[in-house]
Amino acid sequence: MPQGVTASSQVLPKRGRKKADPQEVLRLLRSQQGELEWARRYEPVDELMITILSQHTSDLNAERAYKALKAEFHSWDTAADADTVTIERAIRTAGLSKQKAPRIREVLRTIRERRGVLDLEFLKDLSLSEAKKWLQSLNGVGPKTAAVVLCFSFGLPAMAVDTHVYRVSRRLGLIGPKVNVGQAHILLEEMVPPEKVYPFHVYLIMHGRRICKAQRPLCESCVLNQICPSSLADAAATTQPKRDGKLTGQETAHGSRLHRD
Ligand code: SF4
User: Fold this and answer.
1) Per CATH, which fold does 1-37+160-171+192-261 belong to?
2) Is 25 close to ligand 1, i.e. is its CB under 6 Å away?
3) Where in the chain is the domain with CATH 1.10.340.30?
4) Average pLDDT score over the chain
């Protein structure tokens, strides 16, 4: 079970209900979140570093640690030659710095040893599966980290499955309850047209953060509740007393909270 998926977050499809159509999921989330255009976020080595730093911590902490790392070492070569204590000190805001510092140094050194230079631009000339394989051969780089680098730095159709993508996909019935996170990368990537992999990934993350939350999914406010086999919206409607259709004060506050998230 990936980090963040707990027993209390196991809202799963009800028996007999149809799984959601991935195209319909995309259409509805696009209508809510808007069109997304891909643009390179970081250079590939930088993307790899920030993704390693983000393991088991928030994006904000990872970003801070990444900036501190860049400020401490003016090039990735300098970081590769540094002692791990200095790296560890620089990245301490990311958490688990004792484990991440040697991993970062080893990854940088391995890239340089194999390529002669600390650069990953060559990955764009490989096939998607070769590029994934190359990245995953680095110690500490799994399918999610590899997919983030390939998708965000190169715009390749690699599906990164984080805790939000995994949870929302399971609830929508896109993947079965026994599918593990490693298998989910392959299944979800096959399910979505290549040009839709990037928006699908981003839409599901945003939806998981704002609406389909781990502990209490906000099914009544969810744009997918008519096609989601796990929706709790209809159950709530049958257990609540009938009203005249107007929003209560509580519901209004609930709605505005969503907009602030
Ligand atoms: S209806 Fe929406 S919020 Fe509720 S489980 Fe389904 S996707 Fe998640």
Assistant:
1) Endonuclease Iii, domain 2 (1.10.1670)
2) no
3) 44-154
4) 87
Tokens of 58: 């928030």
Q: Which atom of ligand 1 is nearest to the CA of 217?
A: 3
The radius of gyration of the chain's CA atoms, rounded to the nearest angstrom, is 21
Nearest to 51 by CA among 122, 148, 137: 148
In angstroms, rounded to a whole number, what is the distance separating the alpha carbons of residues 7 and 220?
22
pLDDT digits (tens, 9 = 90+) for 185-231: 999 999 999 999 999 999 999 999 999 999 999 999 999 999 999 99
222 lines ligand 1 (CB under 6 A): yes
Mutation test of ligand 1: which of 168, 226, 234 has the most ligand atoms closer than 8 Å to its C-beta?
Answer: 168
Which of 174, 228, 232 to probe ligand 1 with, by most ligand atoms within 8 A of CB? 228
Ligand 1 atom nearest residue 222's Cα:
2
Would you say 163 and 58 are in contact if contact means Cβ atoms under 8 Å apart?
no
* Whether residue 188 has its Cβ less than 6 Å from ligand 1: no
Cα–Cα distance, 182 to 76 (Å, whole number): 30
Name, in order, each residue with C-beta under 8 angstroms of 183's C-beta and a sequence gap of 6 or more: 175
Q: What is the DSSP letter of 19?
A: P
The model carries a pTM of: 0.84
CATH 1.10.340.30 for domain 44-154, yes or no, is yes
Return residue ranges of the chain for CATH 1.10.1670.
1-37+160-171+192-261
